[in-house]
Design goal:
Layout: H1 12-15, E1 25-29, E2 32-36, E3 43-45, H2 48-56, E4 63-64, E5 79-80, H3 89-95, E6 99-102, H4 110-113, E7 119-121, H5 128-142, H6 146-167, E8 173-179, E9 182-186, H7 194-199, E10 215-216, H8 219-225, E11 229-234, H9 235-238, H10 245-248, H11 252-255, H12 258-261, E12 265-267, H13 270-275, H14 280-295
Parallel strand pairs: 3-6, 4-5, 6-7, 8-11, 11-12
Antiparallel strand pairs: 1-2, 8-9, 9-10
Length: 296
Amino acid sequence: MIRTFCAAFIGMSLFATPAVMAQDIQIHTAQGEVTTAPSPAHVVALDIAAIDTLTALDVPLVGIPDKLYVDYLGDLTAEPVGTLFEPNMEALANLGPDLIIAGGRSAAKVQALSKIAPTIDMTIGEDTVADAKANITTYGVLFEKQDKAAELLAAMDAQLAEAKAATAGKGNALILMTNGPKVSAYGRGSRFGWVHTALDVPEAFENLNPEVHGDAVSFEFIAEVNPDWLIVVDRSVAIGEASSAHTTLDNPLVAGTTAAQNDQIVYLSAAPLYIAGGGYTSLSTTLAEMTTAFTK
């Protein structure tokens, strides 16, 4: 769902002023438009997609979750302030941030977080690419990095065009996520559905449940759908466990599909897509992998 912006404000400490000061700006968030001063100096980010994009924009952070999961953020040295789901309120208060950026897994904590510091919700919705672009633009304005944001948007548009050209006319696809021995399928409107919508890749099976956990499916279902391509996300790898997708899908029913027969099973880098979905580098990684897989 493309966000609808309204005058729903988050964090009373951010907005409870008698009048908007001249230097204040309005920015878009997942919960509406908010008014704030630009260029906050001490920023905590609790959402990996947000941290991904902020890092690409060279925005320094003073606090981040204790585990980021994606390798390309491994060099960040900000203070740990809890987990993706459970921020450490005491650690946050001790940091004294000017702004807290929540989203995704931490979005439910916005009200509690805004008692510590002004907090905005930058959750990426189901229209992943549109929301990712909107967030890049918003961060560019907020941190006065409009030129860098324009560079990232131009690079993303170029990668989208390249990937779309690579996938054109190559057949349909079924997106699967494995979780140990369990398999779920994802279509349009789901957390991975942007692969279909942004790249115009036809669905091998329409009307899949768009819920966050997808549709639980059997190997018989995969064989019956018989996709031209299988696009696979290994949740075990995404959360730092041993890979299981190849083992899970190594069976005669999957092996008999057109995708397997034509060597068209694509194992995407899981952590960027599953953990940091909608972040700039996450999207760039997935788009590059799709382009490579569909042009081999």
